[in-house]
Amino acid sequence: MAAQRPQRQRPPSSFDPAAVAQQQSESTALNADPSNSHNAWEPDDDDDADEPDNDDDDFFTSSPAPAPLTHQPSFHPDQQLPPSSLATNSIRAPSPPLSGPLLDHSHLRPGKQAALLSHERTLELYRANAKKTQDPELQFEFAVFMIDASKSLPIPPDTPGNLLVVEKALEKREELFREATGLLKRLADRGHPSSQYFLADCYANGIGTVKNRQDFDRAYPLFVLAAKHGHADAAYRAGTCCENGWGCRRESAKALTYFRKAAAAKHPGALYRLGIADLNGELGVSRNPKDGVKWLKRSAENATAEFPHALHELALLHERGIENVLFVDYEYSTELLAQGAELGYAPSAYRLGECYEYGKVGCPQDAALSIHYYNIAAQQDHRDACFALTAWYLVGSPGVLPQSDTEAFLWAQKAAEGGLAKAMYAVGYFLEVGIGTTASMPEAIQWYKRAVEKGDKRAAQRLKGSLKPLPGGPGAVVTRGEGESDPGKPGGGKDKDKDCVIM
């Protein structure tokens, strides 16, 4: 059963300080330093990934053929995407799951004498087991383990009396990086696709590079090599490099070639990029909405937590439709948004929060569902969702969400720190009046100035005015003006940004 809306309606997304004056005042990582007492692998001086390494080492008594690829590290988009293009940021892929236990359990002592190994001993046993095998997959697993271990290695606070300890910890981290990248390079030189991709991903993210800077000049050739071995993620990343000119010349035709190669392996990111290219006429292709929708549908069918974007894009297209290509279907649009939100895609969750708050696109007004989806997006620092929660906490929802000025201020502050101009203005107002926090005119002025820098006209008016405290105080809640439309009615809520003070 849908939760009832509060009697006091949620303030819309913008307001004028003058309106407030008329309102009434209301109320796991590693905990020990892993040691690398014996580096079995040292990084090669030669950086060319396509040249074989003929060094004699303990690991490779022969050059076995690459084992079948069992895992492909996937790309994580790092930021919110515009509807017209897919983020191509180079993000460190997660460690692949272990294909089987590498260590036996003979070292464990059950019963009262039970004891677990230290991280140092675990790393040494892992290294010893990896050296015994000629399986490149197990060696690759160990290299990934060392990268993860080095990144999670605790570094003590950098204080004057702690310099030697910090320096030692940093040296251990660098030793692990060198050992891991050295092993990855040897595996890559011997044609192991996962190692080629993972090493390229490290270079692209500044892992194991000079001054930890991104190095696409070394990453791009490795992406190409892995793509030639059929690595779908590598083909997609090679396409993004060609599209953006990262480590190579900017060539749309070559980018399309790599995207199509990855799409043939049902890579959802490549399918999405091809769909957007056809919809908007990008990458040198003619605008073709019909083919664009086909690509997006294929991407949506293969959507993952890393690539849920096609679900969101298709949902928006079904809200407005495309003449002779795509019909309007609100029910299906909501279903697609729900799938995106389930995969953790913040824009889809935020859109659903709006739909259930205002009763848009055929959704019933439901405070519980609205707050639920806003929370999903807000937990991922979606600034508009954070600000939407500010409004909900200002008025509360009986049986769903208790009214809390303090929570309203904190969510507004989080949205403001994310760069949302209207949230900056709201934080300034909260500090000026004392809603959810101690009143502080100097801090309020600072937030107003930050909002002005973002182009907020209301903040500029407040700074030009007398800046006399507005009526209110702790517990004050801003409500809708009498002349505003009801968002629960057809077409309602369209003017919600015109006459509101905070939102």
UniProtKB/TrEMBL annotation:
InterPro entries in alphabetical order: Chitin_Synth_Reg, Sel1-like, TPR-like_helical_dom_sf
Compositionally biased region (Basic and acidic residues): 481-503
Keyword flag Repeat: yes
Region Disordered: start-end pairs: 1-107, 463-503
Keywords assigned by UniProt, alphabetized: Repeat
Chain intervals with Polar residues compositional bias: 21-38, 81-92
Entry superkingdom: Eukaryota
Skewed-composition ranges (Acidic residues): 42-59
Short name of one Pfam family: Sel1
PANTHER family (UniProt xref): CHITIN SYNTHASE REGULATOR SKT5-RELATED, PROTEIN SKT5-RELATED
Protein name: HCP-like protein
